[in-house]
Amino acid sequence: MSQLTIFADHDGMTPTLRTDDPAVIASQLGAVGVRFEQWQASQPIAAGASQEAVLAAYRSDVDRLVAEAGYQTVDVISLNASHPDKAALREKFLSEHTHSEDEVRFFVAGRGLFSLHIGSSVYEVLCEKGDLISVPANTPHWFDMGSEPDLVAIRFFDNPEGWVARFTGSAIAEQFSRLP
Asked: What's the predicted TM-score (pTM) here?
């Protein structure tokens, strides 16, 4: 179940809000410029489906978002617990960083925890199957896919080179939640 938990950035233990209501999640995130939507597949998606099949199942939403925001590249990433570099990949995303473009992910399967450091708050967004999140460019954040990742996500990019991070050097991410 999707969930939003908000903390003061100096206290990763005491939430000021916790909700699993998608409308409240979208409203709270929208108030700080973060897009959150839930999509439904237009057709069943089999385990191990090709990138083309995954994109076809969500074609109307993908096309709408591309037309609306002008993304240049759309692809599908699939990562599971048998991936030989899963620990290194997880570690790479766990440090606070920013991007010069929006980071947009739609979860076809599995889950991931986005933590957004906006102003004096940290917004932890547990995204699961059916969730789309768009983290605005230059927003400090980090991402945890868990120690045993199992996710399929559609990624949207402005930059044809894909994911390019600028790490902030802050240790804030170490004070907040991790997925098991």
From this structure: 0.94
